[in-house]
């Protein structure tokens, strides 16, 4: 009887720890600043609370760029560059993309509809 209670207690503690890890792993998205630089060139500054991973910042910026492209009536974007920085308890990415109605040349192209759907599925906000 004591053994069963002990096993249940350990199992529940494991669940609580897993839930705590999941909460800690979920980024605290702080917002997006968007600035049109020139015609089809757009800058996005995205911020995540805490020490975010570079991949999390990249995904957040991609989500913002994809949604922005759709809002402007375009179907695609291409990543140009990203600068990452950590300031206290905030991680920031300053990213630049081109937006276009057709698939642009380049390695880091984004199909806006597909990326926005993935962002929604992964609970990453867009603009």
Major sheet: size, sense and barrel closure?
A: 5 strands, antiparallel
- Mean pLDDT metric: 85
Strand line-up across the major sheet: 1-2-4-3-5
Question: For the terminal residues, how far apart are their CA atoms?
Answer: 55 Å
Total beta strand runs: 5
State the low-pLDDT regions, or none. Answer: 1-24
Coarse morphology: globular
Order of helices and strands: HEEHEEEH
Instruction: Estimate the strand proportion.
Output: 35-45%
Helix content: 40-55%
User: What is the CA-based Rg, rounded?
Assistant: 19 Å
How many helices?
Answer: 3
Give the class from helix and strand content and strand pairing.
alpha+beta
What does this molecule look like?
- The protein has 127 residues and is α+β, with helices and mostly antiparallel strands.
- It contains three helices and five strands.
- The protein has helices spanning 2-25, 54-71, 112-121, and strands at 28-38, 41-49, 76-87, 90-100, 109-111.
- It has a five-stranded antiparallel beta sheet.
- A hairpin with a 2-residue loop joins β3 and β4.
- The radius of gyration is 19 Å and the shape is globular.
State the gist of this model.
This protein is of the alpha+beta class. Helix content is 41%, strand content 36%. Helix 2 (54-71) crosses helix 3 (112-121).
Q: How do the strands and helices of this protein lay out in sequence?
A:
Elements: H1 2-25, E1 28-38, E2 41-49, H2 54-71, E3 76-87, E4 90-100, E5 109-111, H3 112-121
